[in-house]
UniProtKB/TrEMBL annotation:
Family matches, as InterPro entries: Ankyrin_rpt (IPR002110), Ankyrin_rpt-contain_sf (IPR036770), Espin/Espin-like (IPR052420)
Name of the protein this chain belongs to: Uncharacterized protein
Region of interest called Disordered, as start-end residue ranges on this chain: 1-34
GO biological process: actin filament bundle assembly
Molecular-function GO term, any one: actin filament binding
Comp. bias (Basic and acidic residues): 19-30
ANK repeats: 156-189, 278-311
GO CC terms: cytoplasm
Key words, A-Z: ANK repeat, Repeat
Length: 445
């Protein structure tokens, strides 16, 4: 055994005839020398894993930690320079998702560690539990031992509820926090930076913003959203500090169920007209996230003028709907009924919604034909021969670049705009040049 700056370290020599072959052989002349590996088994080594990597959390050996604490309980009293931070073993174990028996063993070895807030960006054990540990029983156990600790904020202004709403997949754990400290739903990360006014105010995230910015809509709990909004009804009016998203922006971007969208709009119908830092309304985000037609209809009902809004790329919701991964003719119909003139509008790249639909790999021939029928007649005249991007390519050029293009699609374009065959792009190539270069089927050529 020797002492390092990490604390006490036990070195164990592995035998050369180990069944797993962990010994190393070193040859010298005619003699063969067996050299065993030295394996360090101290508390630091057992806990020195990256809490942000799932494989590290899987490798964590809780039973080995308990065994080491029985051998050397004083090891839990030291702060260790782990790869991520300098902190107590209790905090590091919680970050790795340690089960209840490991957390209790570390606490019993050194109870004072639970109140340390000088490391981990001022995060308490409750912050770490909400960020990394999905176990409600661990959080409840820590609360019994230090109930006042649940009140603190970290250096970034986060309460444990903020981190749970942002990171923790357990709705049950978030409900428990709301029950213990409902006032935390009012807390913004840095409310002292807020300015007056809904559209141009600079706020940082409230818990409801963080909860609705989750990646998967399947994890959104309507009852929980309702609780967060009921406790802090003003939250539906404010924008977050990064993208100026309101809760409705977050919900629409996420593709949240219609009940969640309706809940927010009931509190603030005008939220449907608020724009974010890209000048996008919730309707823009709903079209991009392939929301249901019921959600689109609800947003149009509460904010009908949003259909005319263009974002910083000069794209209307119709532009976005025509270029989405799951093009819905039902949604496009709803948008065109409110603003048919949007079909002629050009975005920042001088493209109409129809141009985007054609260049999209997700639009079928039937959908494109349907969209074409919706175009004004005067717009159709030059559509087939007009360049739709910066390389002077027409829809027919684009079609010939697709090695899987169907004869029907080529036929549709040529019959509608026969003069497009002669148009040259920026490389002076006609559609025929491109078709030959891409080895398209002879019938297309």
């Amino acid at each position: 055994t020797h002492i390092s700056h990490y604390g006490s370290t036990e070195l164990v020599e592995m035998s050369s005839d180990n069944s797993e072959g962990r010994g190393e052989k070193r040859k010298g002349g005619n003699d063969e020398e067996q050299v065993g590996k030295l394996v360090r088994r101290d508390l630091f080594t057992l806990l020195d894993h990256d809490s942000n990597k799932e494989e590290s959390r899987i490798e964590f050996d809780g039973n080995a930690v308990i065994a080491e604490l029985r051998r050397d309980p004083k090891a839990a009293r030291e702060r260790y320079m782990f790869s991520e931070s300098c902190t107590y073993p209790l905090h590091q174990a919680i970050s790795l998702g340690a089960p209840l028996d490991v957390v209790e063993a570390l606490y019993e070895s050194y109870p004072d560690a639970i109140k340390d807030t000088k490391r981990n960006r001022g995060r308490t054990v409750f912050h770490l539990c909400c960020k990394y540990n999905t176990s409600l029983e661990v959080l409840s156990c820590l609360f019994e031992k230090w109930p006042d600790g649940l009140e603190g904020k970290d250096w970034d202004g986060n309460t444990p509820l903020h981190l749970a709403c942002e990171c923790n997949p357990s709705n049950e754990l978030i409900e428990w926090l709301l029950e213990k400290r409902p006032d935390d739903a009012h807390e913004e990360r840095h409310p002292e930076n807020a300015l007056g006014g809904m559209r141009y105010s600079r706020h940082d995230d409230a818990p409801v913003h963080l909860y609705l910015s989750r990646k998967s809509p399947l994890k959104i709990d309507l009852k929980l959203v309702s609780s967060l909004v009921e406790i802090y009804s003003h939250c539906v009016e404010i924008s977050d500090g990064e993208f100026y998203y309101t809760p409705l922006h977050h919900a629409c971007k996420l593709g949240a169920p219609i009940d969640v969208i309706r809940l927010v709009l009931e509190k603030l119908p005008d939220a449907a007209m608020v724009t974010d830092h890209d000048y996008r309304t919730p309707l823009h985000h709903a079209c991009e996230s392939n929301s249901s037609s019921e959600v689109i209809a609800l947003l149009l009902e509460e904010g009908p003028d949003a259909v005319d809004f263009d974002d910083k790329e000069y794209q209307t919701p119709l532009h976005i709907a025509c270029f989405s991964e799951e093009v819905s003719l039902e949604i496009i119909t709803l948008l065109l009924e409110k603003a048919p003139q949007c079909m002629e509008w050009l975005d920042g790249m001088d493209q109409t919604p129809l141009d985007l639909a054609y260049s999209s790999e997700f639009v079928s021939l039937e959908q494109f034909s349907w969209l074409l029928k919706k175009c004004p007649e005067d717009m159709k005249v030059n559509l087939g021969t007009r360049a739709i991007d910066g390389w002077w390519t027409t829809p027919l050029h684009h079609a010939c670049k697709d090695k899987d293009v169907s004869l029907e699609k080529i036929d549709l374009l040529i019959k509608r705009w026969p003069e497009a065959i002669k148009v040259k792009d920026h490389t002076r190539s006609t559609p025929l040049h491109i078709a030959c270069a891409r080895n398209l089927p002879l019938e297309i050529i």
